[in-house]
Design a protein that fits this description.
Blueprint lengths: L2 E4 L10 E4 L8 E5 L4 H21 L3 E6 L2 E7 L5 H6 L10 H11 L2 H4 L2 E5 L5 H8 L3 E6 L4 H8 L7 E5 L8 E6 L2 E6 L22 H15 L5 E6 L2 E7 L4 H17 L3 H4 L9 H11 L5 H4 L17 H8 L5 E5 L7 H7 L3 E6 L6 H10 L3 E4 L8
Parallel strand pairs: 6-7, 7-8, 13-14, 14-15
Antiparallel strand pairs: 1-2, 3-8, 4-5, 4-6, 9-10, 11-12, 11-13
Helix pairs in contact: 1-7, 3-5, 5-6, 8-13
Length: about 400
């Protein structure tokens, strides 16, 4: 099949719409269920590239949760801790397969942003992963294959209309890519840059110690940034992105946004949040929204009299600013990647408050000395990769 007609483009008024192969060859995908749309395919193809690279870089199954052409989360298939299983709402599913663990992590990093996501999987979707996907609010999934049982499970989702795409893992795109803006064609070579440990060899700080586990996390951060709308910054810990700041005009705003998401990820693991007395009939998505308010500045939206009764069996105590700071001080050994250089040391100061100990960024700012000095102040190890990872 050379082309696939779509209902409309980014918006319902943008017609006609299709995807097709300009060279006349067959599309490398097969729609097994549903009717994916224009944005679905943008998310699917960007996400597939991301998980494919993560798999090559780490040797582990990988998953990503995409929304509006940027990842809300990305992870590799490492086992979940008991606390992670609880905050990702999968503790009732028993032991997960590596691929299911990867998606639970990718989805769980920022569950509010992942609501209604498009999923990309590096490996054949198994039944365990399909059962996890079935219970979440999602638009669709792309993978190189599906087990018979997994496909049957996914076809039951959304009254039989869930989008399921199979992609040919042997497909290789042309070396030159094109797109049109305002009727004008843009052309560039594809970004085929390989991200590996060699990029992290130029350590410019007094602290030269970047352990193997941190190098893997830095690679995950950089690969994630490669498919994230710029400007972008990514915090990673333990094989998963825990905070992604995408599409900000200012670098510090990226760092703050990603840092606040990383903070929320860790605050969800605090005893005070884990012990929240939710009513049994509160759905997972509503619990996510309630927790987000509870740990934020607008906590009275769910703790005021007449409000807390909607969510809890008893009124929780306020999670004070001092208590939150004390808990966040326990977050350590976080890795951070940036798709372009840090122009000022304020980015490092903000990263430090979210437990960042390792940084990979291109370098090349006129204020590199200030950025390095700030890293040295906090005993952070930073490498200059010498490469930029803008994505638009």
């Amino acid at each position: 099949m050379n082309e696939l007609g779509l209902k409309y483009g980014c918006n319902p008024n943008q017609k006609p719409s299709r995807i097709y192969m300009e060279d006349g060859s067959d599309l490398p995908i097969e729609v097994l269920n549903g009717k994916p749309g224009y944005i679905n395919f943008l998310d699917a193809f960007n996400g597939w590239q991301l998980v494919s690279e993560l798999k090559k870089a780490t040797g582990l199954p990988a998953a990503t949760s995409f929304k509006h052409v940027s990842p809300a989360g990305a992870a590799v298939g490492l086992p979940l801790t008991e606390v992670e299983a609880k905050i990702y709402w999968v503790e009732d599913l028993g032991e997960l397969t590596p691929l299911a663990s990867a998606y639970a992590r990718a989805r769980g990093a920022d569950r509010m942003s992942s609501f209604g996501d498009f999923i990309s999987l590096s490996d054949e979707c198994d039944a365990c992963t399909a059962r996890l996907i079935k219970r979440e609010v999602s638009d669709g999934v792309i993978a190189p294959g599906y087990s018979e049982e997994a496909l049957a499970i996914l076809k039951e989702k959304k009254n039989g209309n869930y989008n399921v795409i199979k992609i040919d893992p042997s497909y290789r795109p042309a070396e030159v890519e094109r797109k049109q803006v305002y009727g004008i064609t843009f052309e560039q070579g594809r970004n085929e840059l390989k991200i590996d440990e060699e990029l992290m060899s130029n350590i410019v700080t007094e602290n030269k110690d970047i352990p193997e586990s941190a190098k893997i996390d830095l690679a995950i951060a950089l690969i994630t940034l490669k498919y994230t709308q710029s400007n972008s910054v990514c915090y990673v810990k333990g094989g998963q992105a825990i905070g992604i700041g995408a599409g900000q005009q200012s670098r510090i705003h990226c760092t703050r946004l990603a840092g606040s998401k990383a903070d929320n990820w860790f605050l969800r693991q605090s005893p005070k949040v884990l012990s929240l007395p939710f009513k049994s009939d509160i759905r997972r998505a509503d619990r996510d929204n309630t927790i987000d308010l509870y740990i934020g500045e607008d906590y009275m939206d769910v703790l005021a009299d007449g409000e807390w009764e909607k969510y809890f069996t008893e009124k929780p105590e306020i999670f004070t600013r001092e208590e939150k700071r004390a808990w966040l001080d326990k977050l350590t050994d976080v890795s951070l990647g940036s798709d372009a250089f840090f122009p000022f040391g304020d980015n490092v100061e903000r990263a430090h408050r979210s437990g960042v100990r390792y940084i990979a960024q291109p370098g090349g700012s006129v204020r590199d000395d200030n950025v390095i000095e700030t890293c040295n102040k906090h005993n952070i190890a930073m490498c200059f990769t010498g490469i930029r990872l803008f994505h638009h």
